[in-house]
Each structure stands twice: as structure tokens, then as C-alpha cells.
Inverse folding.
């Protein structure tokens, strides 16, 4: 063989071997990020990964910090959390107000003010407490956990809460949390002029943790409180820091910055409407206002909290002041409340919904909205507003009228159309004395409901396989279009899709909805890397349901 | 001799011509690939006053919340999704409020929800808040064997007057990088 | 320098040496250029028939015995089928070529070169860089254009290169027909590599559909590469303008793309209620027709060129 040919073959062999071994590398996409605007805080920017050792035993021994000031500040940073009081409105959790807290143990025990986690007025109780932790000093705090009150004292305005679950509500194992915490110090050992570190979250969202330094400028006394009631400081601390962390130079917690005079009418001194908490699409006076601002210069000494902390550690305790009652869904002048609105296609003889639906098929002729009510009274002005796709429907809505339903019970309203309800999103809002007590929405039309009587429609299930290997293709889509829509016509709008299913790892799929008989449908089977297979006008006759199919796709 | 020289020159030209031709064809092929993969058409959401471009071949759905959902049916076992939402928010409030509320809503319906990072990005020459997160999607249908899918997501909160427009990108962990470009193009073409 | 050199063997020639296409030939090589080599065409015919017979044989065997291979056995059987398909032509060719054989090593080398280029460049380029599987099925027009521009040009260029940069400048490449021979060899090598990848990537293929796909790939790749080889053969020995070779590669690429798209269309059947979506037999028919047409045309063209040359119409330069 000539030398030339041989050399060529050698080179190409080398290349081949390389190509076989080289991994499929595509440059990873880099998201567009701009330089983060530096927040004017005194927190160090470099991360020293210092965390207090999570101890799996009962009581973690306090860590003594030697010397390194920056390490102490890092620990305090991680140990200061933002507490967000959340209320459930329209099915969603919405923020009510925020404050700060200090982590006492790696298991997630947190010390804060009572007014941050609760309120003597049962009408303003939060439904949940969110805990957001700072992971990096220049990042906003991450909302991670939900917590519950373990011990609370309204007179002292102190409370201890415990992290119990993650955001979805699933319980977390406290022993697994391993959170950075700060040990408790002795507030009685403080003297005038001692330096204090104060950390907290001043604002509503978007503000990273703030660090303030101050000195002890004095002590105050209070009737009913033994010893020092407040530690005063010259530092001016923003209001959101209330409940946060005040530590001495050794990094021990010596107090809780407290906004004095909080509660009652003064709560709303600087209360702003920032978020659409009722979900109506507008930020206005119908929403909850969120208190911001104000200043603090008083710190509750931690020694006053020690009995609360002990009580919390030993197990569930009874709060010392009015028990927060289970909040009624909705607020109004008077005690009236409505439950969540349940939509149904019909009601039975007892005026109860026959079933709860979140969607009705096109062609449905009736829609019922049902709810329970309590604390109503005959004569109260009530109103029901129906909206279709956001537009007020005056002909089916109920203008303000005196209530005649009695104090408690169940009620329903309905809309109907003999020729089938117009497709769209129907929303019902219920008002008593001009206050919205409940609302709910439901979609009519767009997708078919499952056949309620067996044997009526045809359920299709089966396999999508690779034409050559005859093995199932994972992630393939079997799409059935509405009758009358050909695959060529389809512009990608999901409203033109009757139903579809995606195959599992075996290539198996089941259509969730049955196809009506004596109808033709356009069907499309699609998978990445394969040629699509199309059937226009596939006729559904009298085949037995469920019907097994096998579609073979070939690779491109 | 001249004839031979001419012949040799012609041969050389022919060699180079083939290579140039093939290179041209491949360049055209690359252009064709980009045009096909990222072909887009306009859409408008009149009520919300938002318009932009969605990709051809993606399945679209409009609604109230989210306003628009587009899904790529060809992206593997978890179809890449782009969602558009609008939430009212006072101008002085921070967009993180909306993102936190969204996180709370999502955490209830999916498993293992976790926020990964929050940062500021520049979009349309203004600062927007970006949050990345992850969760696991589990199919509870007992008759179908779907493996749990790890989903990575990105929320970008864009400020507008009196509201925050949130664009969400959801993709399976393997296709996240490959389809990221669709997200970026979608956000950049958004007008509100 | 005053004496001309034979363009093939670089030996000095007499002053009255024959010329063809601006090139000078010594007596021996002029005779070779115009050699007709019926063996080649018989081998081509044999290949087409052989591949068809091979498919039918396997289909009958699998249908009768219904062997249940799995795992490594299935892969091994698949690879074996791919190699057999490649060998069919080689065997026919070597048998037909007994009289004045091409150096055996050379044909085999070009075959291997075609296979290596497929594995090293062709397949990774198309699958990983261009990712054709992602965007070709999206639209019919885009698919056709993409099949031609990307798949067609990449594959045809590599097969062209396998011949052009190895055997083409050597004296052993001394007949018009050599272009078709070596082109076919490169094409089959490329096809074999495609087939092996296809078998291994899917972890073993269903034999009935798999063997059809193997044969279709072999026939198609061999045909188009043979066409490129024809252009190469004419380029070496005749006075073709400089756009002759590029056109040849382009023509092969276009045919490759059209074939791929057509094959996809014909084998994808409409969806009905019970499923379906795939029928491999039209692909086989298409490949057979394409191969027969290509080789038939090439045979005719070369035969005609030889006749014209031998009848002395072009004493110096000038193609027909």
C-alpha cells in the first residue's frame, strides 16, 4: 500500500478514536447578569464559611468565639432571620408584615418580638409565619421555612417560634436543619458604653440584611418587670429590625431590638399598600396594608426571655395572653364569614354541590357556585358580582340587597344557558356591607370533561415505539385535536387541543379524556429526534374502550 | 507545457472550489438550523398590554394567571415551558414580594421546592430581579411509569407601572442549558 | 522538461503521444483509460440484486424461526448484518475483477477510509454539532433544504475526500471507471459505519426493520458516492472546467438530500386508529430504483466516453 494512503488512514483512525471518546460538549448557556448593586452595609463581602457545629444531642453547648471579629459577624449574619407574617387570601398566602428574629439553636428555635409573630386582636392573626434566612451577605433573604409559635408573652413583647415545615407545608426534621445560631449571653453584664452589634431586616422585600453598631447608652425600668426593662442604645435602628439580633462583641445575644409602643392603632402609623394581597389585580385600599418604617432605639434584655426560651425548648406551651383564634376566612364589620366558593355542575336536593369541579366542559348548561356562611344576619346588605373573562355581567349578578339567609348555613347561586354556557373564565365575588368576603373562579369550555358514563367515549392508550428497535420512546406526545381542526391548520394554540398525553419511560401513555364516538379527529404523534406521524380524520366508531394502539416513529 | 500547466492550475482551482462550495453549504446549513429552531411569530395580549414573540411549533395557552403559557413539545420528557404573569405591585415595593408569593404558591403543588438564588439582572436597560429555583415533578398516576423529573426554573420580575411582569422559564435539568436561549430571546422580545 | 510526461505514470512519452483533455498519456495508460471493464458493471448489478436477495433471505429466516435475540447478541447480529451487506459488493467486485484486478489493498483501504471519516467527522458533525435530529423534522421545506445542505454536503464531501486525497493522485488510479470503483468503495465504507452506529446506538435493532434500513443505507450511499467518483474520474482524464468537480459533489449532495427526504416521506404512513406510522418497504424500493438508475446512467456515460475516445474524435483535448 502506498505510503500516502497509509498515512492518511493512520490520521483518520486517530481522529476517529478521538471522536468516539470525546464527550458531547455544548457550551452551557450563561444567564444575563449585571453586576449586583452593592448594598451600603457593613457586612463583609467575602464568605467565610463558618457555621456553628450542628450537634445532634439535646442541648448544643454554646460556642465561644475567640478573637476573630469577622467570623463572629459572619455567624451573626447567618443567625439573623427575617420573619414574614402571612395570611391566606383567596387561597394564596400573602405577606402581612415583616420583622426579624434570631436563631437560638441549630434545630430552628427562633427568638423574636411577640408583635412580629402575632397580635392580640384575633382579626389580625397571621395564618402562617415564613422564615427567610440569609445565605450570602449580599443576597436578599431566602424564604425557606414556615414556623409555629412555641411560647409568647405579650406584656414583654417577646416570643419564641420553631421552624416546623418547608414552604409547601411538609414537615422538616429539626435535627437535620443544622442552622447557624448564636448563643445567649447575659444582658445583666452589660455596662454603659459597651459596644453592640445589631442585625435585622429593615424593609419589605428586596432589602438585604443590615448591620448597625451602637453603644449601650442607658437602661430603663418598667413596672412589673424585674431588673432592666430596656437597654437603650444610641444607634438608630430601622423599624423592620424589630425582633432581630442584638449581640455583644463576643457574639452572644444580649437582647431583642423592640419597637416600643407597637400594636393597636399605632400599628398603622406608616402602613402602606404595596402588594395585591386580595388578588383582584389592583393595589388599593382593599388590600392589606403592610407596615413599614419607624425607628427603634430600645432593646429588650435577653435575660427576660430566658424563661420563655426554656419553656419553648421543653415542649409546646400555652401562650400567656389571648389565644390566637383560627382566623375566619375573610374579615368584615361584624362577624360574618363565608367559606371558599365551590363550583359544581348541579346541586342535590339538600342544596349541596353534587361534585366539586375546577373546570366545566364546553356545552355545559349550568354552573352552580356554593358556599357556607356564618355570623350573617338578616338585613345585612350583600352583593354578588359575576365576571366573565374579567367583564362584569350585570344580568346575572345580584345588586346590593338585604340578606335573607339567616345567621348560618349554605347558599348557592347559579348561571345557566340552554344552549351551553359561553366559554371563558367565570368569577364570582361576594360582598357583605361592601366588604369582599369570598371569591372564586372557574373555567368553562376549552377541554372536554371525562366521560362520566362508561362505554360512552373511547379511551385511547398504548405505546409509541421506535420503528427500528421497537422499543418505547420516552417523552413522546400523543395529541388529539378538536374535531374539525386538521393537523395542518393547527397553529399551536392549546385551545384547539382536545386532549393529549405524554409517554413514560416504557413509551406507554393513556389519554386522560375519552374521545366521542362517531367523530373524526386529527391526531399527531411527536417526539424529539423523530419524524412526526399524522392522521387527519381518524374516525372513532364502535371500538371497545379502552383501545390499545401502537405507533412507530422513525428517527431522522 | 503550457497546456499541462493550465491543466494543473485548473485542477487546483477545482479542488479549492469543492472545499469552498462545501463550506458555503455548511454555513447556509447553520443559518437554516438557527432559523428553524428559533423561528418565532408575534403575539399580543391586548388586555394586559403585553406583546412579544413566541416560537413556532410551541403549544400556546392564554389565561388569567398565568397570562400566557407556551410549551415546547419537543424538548424531551419534561416539556420546556415559558410562562407570563402580571401581578399588581406598588411602585415603591420590591419585586421580591411577588416572587416570594409565587414561591409559596408553587411550593404547595410540587415536591422538593427550593429557591436557589436571587440576583439582579439588567433587562431592557432596567434592573430586574431574577430568581432561580428547582423542584421535582412526580406523576402520581399508578398506571403510568414516569420517572420523577427534576425541574430547574428561573423567574424574572420586570417592573412596569403599578405591576410586575414575571416571566418564568421551566425546563428539565438536562435540557435547561440547551433551551435557555429560548428564554432569553422571549424576555428580550417582550414589550409592555 | 521538453519531453512531456505521462500524466498517470509520470514517464516520459514520445512526441506523438496521445492527448486527452489537455493531458498526455503514454501508450499503455491511454489504453487503460478507455478500458471498458464490464466486470465493474456486473458487480454493480450483482450488488443491487445481492442486497435485495439478502433482505429477502433475512426476512424469511426471521419470519420462519423468529429468533429472540437480546442484549449483546442482538447487537452482534445487527453488526454482522451490516458487515455482510457491505461485503456483498466487495465480493462481487473482486470476483468480477479477476482479469485485471485493482490492487486489492487499495479498494479495501478506501472502504476503510470512508468508514473512518464517517465515524470521526461525519456522524459527530451531523448529530452533535448540527443536531439535525432536532430541527429537520420541523418543516417539510426546511427539512429538504437541510437534508441537502447539511446531510448531503457533509456526507458527499467526506466520501469525495476519501477518494480524492488518497488514491486519486496515484498512478493506480488510471481508468475512468476507477472513479466509480473507488467512489463506491468509499460510499459503502461510509454506509457500513452509519449502519453500525445505528445498531449500537439503539442497543440492537429489530431485525426485520433493521436489515431493510441497512440495505437501503448501503445502496444509497454507494450510489451517490459512485456518482461523485464518476466526476472524479472524468476530472482526472479529461478537459473539464474547474466547476466540474464542485458540480459533481453538489449534484451528489442534492440527490442525497432528496433521497433522504423522499425516503422519510414514503416510509412514514398516515396514522390510523390502531397506530401505524411506519412501513420500511417503500424505502427499499426507492433505494433499489435509485441505485439501479445511478449505476445504469454511469455505465452508459462511461461506455459512451470510452467509445468516443477510442474512435479518435478528440485527438487533443475536448470532452464530448
Amino acid at each position: 500500500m502506498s505510503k500516502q494512503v497509509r498515512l492518511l488512514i493512520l490520521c483518520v483512525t486517530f481522529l476517529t478514536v478521538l471522536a468516539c471518546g470525546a464527550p458531547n460538549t455544548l457550551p452551557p448557556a450563561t444567564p444575563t447578569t449585571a453586576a449586583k448593586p452593592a448594598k451600603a452595609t457593613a457586612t463583609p463581602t467575602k464568605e467565610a464559611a463558618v457555621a456553628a457545629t450542628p450537634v445532634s444531642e439535646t442541648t448544643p453547648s454554646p460556642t465561644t468565639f475567640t478573637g476573630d471579629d469577622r467570623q463572629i459577624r459572619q455567624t451573626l449574619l447567618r443567625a439573623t432571620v427575617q420573619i414574614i407574617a402571612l395570611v391566606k387570601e383567596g387561597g394564596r398566602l400573602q405577606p402581612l408584615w415583616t420583622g426579624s428574629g434570631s436563631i437560638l439553636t441549630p434545630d430552628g428555635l427562633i427568638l423574636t418580638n411577640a408583635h412580629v409573630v402575632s397580635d392580640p386582636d384575633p382579626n389580625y392573626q397571621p395564618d402562617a409565619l415564613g422564615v427567610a434566612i440569609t445565605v450570602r451577605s449580599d443576597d436578599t433573604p431566602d424564604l425557606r421555612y414556615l414556623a409555629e409559635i412555641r411560647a409568647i408573652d405579650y406584656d414583654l413583647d417577646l416570643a419564641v417560634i420553631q421552624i416546623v415545615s418547608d414552604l409547601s407545608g411538609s414537615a422538616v426534621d429539626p435535627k437535620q436543619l443544622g442552622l447557624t445560631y448564636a448563643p445567649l449571653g447575659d444582658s445583666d453584664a452589660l455596662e454603659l458604653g459597651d459596644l453592640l452589634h445589631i442585625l435585622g431586616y429593615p424593609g419589605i422585600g428586596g432589602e438585604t440584611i443590615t448591620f448597625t453598631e451602637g453603644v449601650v447608652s442607658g437602661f430603663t425600668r418598667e413596672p412589673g418587670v424585674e431588673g432592666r426593662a430596656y437597654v437603650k442604645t444610641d444607634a438608630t435602628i430601622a423599624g423592620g429590625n424589630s425582633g432581630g439580633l442584638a449581640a455583644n462583641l463576643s457574639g452572644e445575644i444580649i437582647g431583642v431590638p423592640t419597637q416600643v409602643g407597637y400594636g393597636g392603632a399605632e400599628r398603622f402609623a406608616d402602613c402602606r399598600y404595596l402588594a395585591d394581597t386580595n388578588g383582584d389585580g389592583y393595589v388599593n385600599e382593599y388590600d392589606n396594608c403592610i407596615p413599614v418604617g419607624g425607628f427603634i432605639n430600645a432593646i429588650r434584655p435577653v435575660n427576660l426571655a430566658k424563661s420563655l426560651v426554656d419553656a419553648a425548648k421543653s415542649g409546646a406551651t400555652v401562650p400567656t395572653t389571648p389565644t390566637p383564634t383560627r382566623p375566619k376566612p375573610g374579615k368584615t364589620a361584624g362577624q360574618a364569614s363565608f367559606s371558599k366558593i365551590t363550583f359544581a355542575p348541579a346541586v342535590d336536593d339538600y342544596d349541596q354541590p353534587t361534585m366539586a369541579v375546577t373546570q366545566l366542559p364546553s356545552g355545559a348548561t349550568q354552573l352552580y357556585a356554593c358556599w357556607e356562611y356564618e355570623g350573617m344576619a338578616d338585613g345585612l346588605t350583600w352583593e354578588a358580582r359575576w365576571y366573565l373573562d374579567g367583564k362584569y355581567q350585570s344580568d346575572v349578578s345580584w345588586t346590593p340587597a338585604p340578606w335573607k339567609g339567616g345567621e348560618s348555613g349554605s347558599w348557592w347561586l347559579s348561571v345557566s344557558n340552554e344552549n351551553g354556557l359561553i366559554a371563558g373564565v367565570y368569577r364570582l365575588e361576594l360582598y357583605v356591607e361592601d366588604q369582599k368576603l369570598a371569591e372564586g373562579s372557574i373555567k368553562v369550555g376549552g377541554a372536554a370533561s371525562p366521560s362520566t358514563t362508561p362505554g360512552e367515549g373511547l379511551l385511547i392508550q398504548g405505546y409509541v415505539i421506535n420503528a427500528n428497535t421497537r422499543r418505547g420512546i420516552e417523552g413522546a406526545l400523543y395529541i388529539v385535536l378538536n374535531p374539525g381542526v386538521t393537523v395542518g391548520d393547527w397553529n399551536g394554540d392549546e385551545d384547539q387541543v382536545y386532549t393529549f398525553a405524554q409517554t413514560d419511560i416504557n413509551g406507554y401513555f393513556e389519554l386522560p379524556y375519552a374521545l366521542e364516538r362517531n367523530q373524526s379527529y386529527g391526531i399527531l404523534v411527536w417526539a424529539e429526534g423523530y419524524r412526526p406521524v399524522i392522521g387527519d380524520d381518524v374516525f372513532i366508531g364502535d371500538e371497545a374502550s379502552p383501545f390499545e394502539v401502537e405507533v412507530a416513529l422513525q428517527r431522522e | 507545457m503550457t497546456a499541462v500547466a493550465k491543466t494543473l492550475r485548473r485542477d487546483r482551482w477545482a479542488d479549492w472550489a469543492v472545499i469552498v462550495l462545501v463550506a458555503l453549504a455548511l454555513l447556509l446549513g447553520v443559518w437554516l438550523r438557527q432559523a428553524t429552531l428559533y423561528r418565532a411569530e408575534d403575539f399580543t395580549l391586548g388586555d394586559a398590554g403585553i406583546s412579544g414573540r413566541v416560537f413556532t411549533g410551541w403549544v400556546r395557552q392564554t389565561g388569567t394567571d398565568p397570562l400566557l403559557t407556551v410549551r415546547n413539545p419537543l424538548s424531551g420528557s419534561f416539556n420546556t415551558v415559558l410562562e407570563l404573569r402580571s401581578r399588581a405591585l406598588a411602585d415603591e415595593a420590591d419585586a421580591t414580594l411577588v416572587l416570594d408569593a409565587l414561591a409559596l404558591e408553587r411550593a404547595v403543588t410540587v415536591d422538593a421546592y427550593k429557591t436557589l438564588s436571587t440576583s439582579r439582572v439588567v433587562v431592557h436597560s432596567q434592573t430586574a430581579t431574577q430568581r432561580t429555583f428547582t423542584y421535582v415533578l412526580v406523576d402520581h398516576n399508578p398506571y403510568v411509569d414516569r420517572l420523577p423529573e427534576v425541574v430547574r426554573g428561573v423567574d424574572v420580575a420586570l417592573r412596569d407601572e403599578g405591576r410586575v411582569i414575571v416571566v418564568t422559564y421551566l425546563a428539565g435539568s438536562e435540557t435547561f442549558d440547551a433551551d435557555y436561549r429560548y428564554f432569553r430571546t422571549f424576555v428580550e422580545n417582550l414589550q409592555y | 522538461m521538453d519531453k512531456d510526461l505521462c500524466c498517470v505514470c509520470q514517464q516520459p512519452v514520445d512526441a506523438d503521444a496521445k492527448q486527452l483533455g489537455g493531458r498526455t498519456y503514454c501508450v499503455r495508460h491511454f489504453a487503460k483509460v478507455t478500458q471498458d471493464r464490464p466486470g465493474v458493471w456486473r458487480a454493480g448489478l450483482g450488488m443491487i440484486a445481492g442486497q435485495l436477495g439478502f433482505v429477502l433471505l433475512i426476512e424469511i429466516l426471521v419470519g420462519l424461526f423468529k429468533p429472540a435475540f437480546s442484549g449483546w447478541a442482538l447487537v452482534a447480529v445487527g453488526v454482522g448484518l451490516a458487515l455482510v451487506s457491505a461485503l456483498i459488493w466487495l465480493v462481487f467486485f473482486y470476483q468480477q475483477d479477476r482479469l485485471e484486478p485493482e490492487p486489492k489493498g487499495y479498494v479495501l483501504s478506501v472502504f476503510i477510509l470512508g468508514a473512518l471519516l464517517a465515524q470521526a467527522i461525519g456522524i459527530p458533525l451531523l448529530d452533535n454539532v448540527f443536531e439535525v435530529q432536532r430541527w429537520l423534522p420541523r418543516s417539510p421545506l426546511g427539512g429538504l433544504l437541510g437534508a441537502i445542505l447539511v446531510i448531503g454536503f457533509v456526507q458527499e464531501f467526506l466520501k469525495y475526500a476519501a477518494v480524492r486525497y488518497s488514491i486519486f493522485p496515484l498512478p493506480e488510479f488510471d481508468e475512468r471507471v476507477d472513479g466509480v470503483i473507488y467512489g463506491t468503495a468509499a460510499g459503502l465504507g461510509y454506509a457500513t459505519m452509519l449502519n453500525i452506529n445505528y445498531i449500537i446506538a439503539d442497543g440492537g435493532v429489530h431485525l426485520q426493520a433493521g436489515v431493510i434500513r441497512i440495505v437501503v443505507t448501503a445502496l444509497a450511499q454507494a450510489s451517490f458516492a459512485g456518482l461523485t467518483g464518476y466526476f472524479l474520474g472524468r476530472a482526472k482524464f479529461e478537459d473539464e472546467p474547474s466547476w466540474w468537480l464542485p458540480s459533481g459533489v453538489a449534484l451528489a449532495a442534492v440527490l442525497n438530500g432528496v433521497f433522504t427526504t423522499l425516503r422519510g416521506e414514503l416510509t412514514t404512513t398516515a396514522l390510523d386508529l390502531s397506530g401505524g406510522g411506519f412501513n420500511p418497504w417503500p424505502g427499499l424500493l426507492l433505494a433499489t430504483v435509485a441505485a439501479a438508475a445511478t449505476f445504469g446512467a454511469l455505465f452508459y456515460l462511461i461506455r459512451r466516453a470510452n467509445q468516443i475516445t477510442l474512435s479518435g474524435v478528440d485527438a487533443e483535448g475536448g470532452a464530448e
User: Anything to note?
Assistant: The first strand of chain C starts at residue 19 and ends at 20. The two ends of chain C are 30 Å apart (CA to CA). Chain C has ten helices and three strands.
